[in-house]
Amino acid sequence: MSVRARRHLASAEDDEGPDERWMASYLDMITVLMCMFIVLFAMSTVDQEKFEQLSASLATGFGQDESEVRDITEGVVVPSELLDENGQGFLELELDAAQTELDELTKLRERLRQALIENDLEDAATFTIDERGLTVGLVSAETYFATNSAQLTPEAATLLNALGGVLVDVPNEISIEGHADPRAAVAPYATNWELSVGRSTQVLRHFVEVDGIDPAQIKSVGFGDARPTAAGTTAEAMAQNRRVDVVVLSSADEEVRQLLPELQQERPEL
């Protein structure tokens, strides 16, 4: 048989019977339709009770309002009593930390107060606990410095030694902050900034050089007359504004420190 005859015979054999390749596409389409109807059927028969339980569990887990339906959540769920009024944060844990910090600052204040009493200086300073920490106010700078001078008086040295003997063992950072009354400074100080900084620096140097406080944990700041504590120009008001504050800075987180004034008000005996 010739080559041409064999090709003709093969072509004839290929033409025998219908072409069924369309069946593959048809079966794929039927499969997709069946899956679609199964999904639609499943969506039309949602278990309402289980859906509500899931919704309640998610609401509880994200700290939303309590659900009236039964919660089947397993694992760690945030209790509502640990959330603040906005559903954010662990208020109870922060309150505990703030109470601990307040107790520590109160103990330090009593130690400092006792040191002053032992040196007959119980009225030489004021004590305030707020969100910054414990502030020891050395009011009326003329008791501790000569007029328009940053040189410490003997009374100031005695007071600082009493305070420094306690503060030397405190791990907190300490900020020495100088203030002045609104009267204009005179030579050798160009402004009240220089005068307030000069006085706070002298207090810092005494704490470091005489009392042995670590220089890495203490700093000097001068506010001039920009932060008065008393209004007016009377002698009493200006005496209150001429001051040096020794601030033992709280080492707690900001969220905890913000709770200190409120706790202090709730415990006026402190």
Task: Give a description of the structure.
By secondary structure, this protein is α+β, with helices and mostly antiparallel strands. It is built from nine helices and five strands. The protein has a five-stranded mixed β-sheet. Helix 4 crosses helix 5. The longest helix is centred in the middle third of the chain and has 28 residues, at 91-118. It is elongated, with a radius of gyration of 39 Å. The N and C termini lie far apart (120 Å). The relative contact order is 0.12. Mean pLDDT is 80; it is low at 69-78.
Which features does this protein show?
elongated, single chain, 270 residues, 5 strands, alpha+beta
What's the quick description here?
The protein is of the alpha+beta class. The protein has nine helices and five strands, in the order H-H-H-H-E-E-H-E-H-E-H-E-H-H. Helix 4 crosses helix 5.
The quaternary organization reads as single chain
Strand count, sense and barrel status of the largest sheet are: 5 strands, mixed
List low-pLDDT spans: 69-78
Percent helix range = 40-55%
Question: What sequence of helices (H) and strands (E) makes up the elements?
Answer: HHHHEEHEHEHEHH
What is the mean pLDDT? 80
Overall outline? elongated
- Which strand order spans the largest sheet, edge to edge or round the barrel? 1-2-5-3-4
Q: Count of DSSP E strands? A: 5
Judged by helices, strands and strand pairing, the structural class is alpha+beta
Percentage of β-strand residues = 5-15%
Termini, distance in Å?
120 Å
Rg is: 39 Å
Please tally the helical runs, counting DSSP H or I stretches of 4 or more residues.
9
